[in-house]
Amino acid sequence: MLHIEEYVGIIVGVPQPHRAKALANPDRPHGALIHELERYIEAHHDVTDVNVVSATDTGQADTTHKPVRHWYQVTYEA
User: Fold this and answer.
1) pTM of the model
2) At the N or C end, where does the chain have fewer CB atoms within 10 A?
3) Range of the domain at 47
4) pLDDT tier at 1, thresholds 50, 70, 90
């Protein structure tokens, strides 16, 4: 018989934190910037239901996009 206190494992359905770099327009309002980061991560990292926990502008810009996008280091749950 397996006792619950003996079971160690991953709880299904609990979001796990991940880190990734993502592009977004730094001139957008906060909510729109977060949404853009979430969509970028979903499109480039094969995940869904992304929730950004934190994002830090790396200071690196991608000038191939208009308007210019900045790279962000993002911690997210999916």
Assistant:
1) 0.79
2) N
3) 16-77
4) very low
Write the single-letter amino acid at 64: T
> To 5 degrees, how large is the angle CA 71–CA 73–CA 61?
15
Q: What is the mean pLDDT of residues 40-49?
A: 94
Residue 10 lies in a domain: no
Q: Exposure of 60 by Cβ count < 10 A (0-12 exposed, 13-18 middle, 19+ buried)? A: exposed
* Full 3-state SS string of the chain: CCCHHHCCCCCCCCCCEEEEEEEECCCCCHHHHHHHHHHHHHHHCCCCCCEEEEEEEEEEEECCCCCCEEEEEEEEEC
Domain count, the chain: 1
